[in-house]
Each structure stands twice: as structure tokens, then as C-alpha cells.
Amino acid sequence: MKKDNKIKFKGDKEGYCNICGKYSQLTRDHIPPQGCVKPTLVELRTLTQYISESSKNPKVSQSGLNILSICGNCNNNLLGTEYDPELIEVCKKVAGVVRIQRELGLSLPEKIPLSIKPQRLIRSVIGHILAGKLPITGKLPISALFPDALRNYFLDQSSNIPDKLEIYYWVYPSNKQSVINSLAIGSGLGEGFISGSSLLKFFPLAFWVVWDKPTSFPISFTKIPKDKVKDLDETCQIMIDLRHVPRLDYPEVPSEGRYIMYHEDSTFLAQPKKPKGFG
Ligand SMILES: [Zn+2]
């Protein structure tokens, strides 16, 4: 139990913004944005608590997964105004199809095409990933190749998606939400090592942002195309594969022959709390 108390779920009211690095009042980022999933009563766990099932008394949040981590400008003017509307739109469209498939059992085509604005969609995903950890009191965000690339890309609207960055996505039919800011995955099978990646998962999609993936490391999901995309409002077509759906805890719970490394305090998993006396 003692170990659980060390993990902070509540942050400071002011500090250095996780995205732009400016010192200011910190605002709550809802992950995912409220237009995607209605915030409800949830239990919060870290990845270790989730994997080990060690937390018998998880922290509870009344309004979903939200983290005091970014300044008002990054939260409202950039994420909320410029980028979230595209993520919300895409999620609404995919959610509609996934619900029809699951609830009515209608047989749908294996894949459905969807038109997206990748520059806005990817910045929304990256913004919430960067917001998905508590700032360290009195310290600027950690500077390293992968997080710096994410921040610079997010903040510079004229920049293109970095060469070494790939964004994989798949259908995620679960009401659990998770954000894992930094996840390294290695393999004892000679597949190489992913030193930097981030995860954002909520109904109906999961996004895995991967930095500098070795070609030997297999990821069998589709990537958001980026080669021909430049302008913010340029569109491209992606395919939503309704049948190729991995287990719900892929890839953060490693399969045989793989191992993971992460910072415990930058992993947040939220699960809707069941009403008392139910299950
Ligand atoms: Zn900021």
C-alpha cells in the first residue's frame, strides 16, 4: 500500500507547461478531449498497478482522466481550438461504425475509408500525450530527442511530421482510457528495440506514436500517411480496419519474448467505476 501512495495523481496549480515549457498557471487537460468521451467517475491506476493488480484502493476521479499539466494557451488556443475538433470528428465517425458492428451485429465491410486532416489529427494526439504526465515541480520538461521532436512539431504549425515519427492506429473497442507518455519496448527475439514511443487509447481508437522504429521490429497496424501532407488543412484518406483488432492491452502489456520500460509516474489508466453492489 505504501508504494501506491508515492504515485501522484494530483499536480501543482502552477508550473512549467509540459508542451511549451512556459511557467504559468496550469490547466487540466481532459484525456481524451470531452467531445470524444463523456467524462465520468473513473478509477485511476498506473501501468504497474494495472499489470500487477496490486492496487486495491485505486484513486478515483469524478470527471474522467484529467491532468493539471499544460498552460491555458496550449490547452485552449492550440489543442482545444486548432487540433481537437479534428480528433473529435474522426472519433465520432469511427465510433458510429464500431457501435453498429458490435451492438447490432451487422456485417460491415472489413475496412472503411475515412478522410482526415493528418496535421491537425496528429497534433491533437501528440498534445494529449505530452499533457499525459504531471510536470515535475520547479523543473522544465525533460529534454531528449523524442519528446523535443513531439513538442517542436506540435508548436510549429508550419513544420512537417518528423521523418522518424510514425503514428500507428487501430480500433480499440473498450471503455478504458490510457495515456502512456513514454514507453520503450525491447525484444529478446532479435527484433530490435523501440527506445521512444507513446500511447493514447480510448474508445474507439488507439494511437501508438513511435520514434525511430527499427525495420526489424514488427508492428502489423496501419500508419497515418505523412509523405505528401504539408498544409494544416490538407486531407488524406486512411482505412479503418474493423477486423484486425489486437488484444486490448496491446502493446503496453508485453507478449512473450518482449519487455517494456517506462516511467511509472507518466502512465495513467482510467476505468469507469462500477456502481456499488454491481459486480
Ligand atoms: Zn504551454
Describe the protein in words.
With 279 residues, the protein is of the alpha+beta class. The chain is built from five helices and 17 strands. It has helices spanning 2-6, 47-52, 72-104, 118-130, 145-155; strands spanning 14-16, 23-25, 27-30, 42-45, 59-61, 66-70, 111-116, 165-171, 177-180, 183-187, 193-194, 196-202, 205-211, 222-223, 236-241, 258-262, 267-272. Helix 3 (72-104) packs across helix 4 and helix 4 crosses helix 5. It starts with a helix and ends in a 7-residue tail after the last strand. Residues 1-5 have low confidence and may be disordered. The site of zinc ion has 8 residues, from helix 3.
Whole-number mean pLDDT: 91
Bound molecules: zinc ion
Report Rg: 18 Å
- Number of domain units: 1
- The strands making up the biggest β-sheet line up spatially as 5-4-17-9-12-13-8-14
